[in-house]
What we know:
This protein is mostly helical. It has helices spanning 10-27, 30-78, 80-100. The two termini are 13 Å apart. It is built from 3 helices and no strands. It has one domain.
Amino acid sequence: MATTKPEPTAGLVVTGMIGGYVAARVTKVRALGGIVLGAAGIAAGRRWHRASGPGTTALLSTVYLGAFGASHPLAKKLGSWPSVLACTAAAAGAAWALNDKQ
Length: 102
């Protein structure tokens, strides 16, 4: 299972989700936002795998992508920024609780 001491990943989750949103919104190139989201997710996933193993990695990857997906319909109810912030908080909180705080 865990082979190394966990490296912080909540910051990577925040960077991916908020950075991806900002990149897409400012440049009006949604693919650029996806690149930021994907790069941060891959970096976090590598850390999750090293520290917590494949099961936790699968769970946190699902939470990360699920939060990204949930932010879209939630934005229709809350607005863009509140949705991005709420979903980012959920995903980063999960990363902290399941990997970072060990």
